[in-house]
User: Fold this.
Amino acid sequence: MTLVDIQEANGHLVELIKKALSGEDVILSEGDKPLARLVPLTARKPSRQPGSAKGDILYVAPDFDAPLEDFKDYM
Assistant:
């Protein structure tokens, strides 16, 4: 983990970003008080598309939503 004062980080930002991209924790601080952490951005997940799994489920049992035998006492 690298703890860097925010004033010092101003002049070494490129090096600190390279450290963060390589997986090292880089914490920006003011005195002894941590303020921020540099982390690499991850790839965005694709947005969900309704209906994109249509046709993937081939069979649903006729009693799919019927009460389970184990829970009859609770109903």
The CA atoms of residues 64 and 70 lie 15 Å apart.
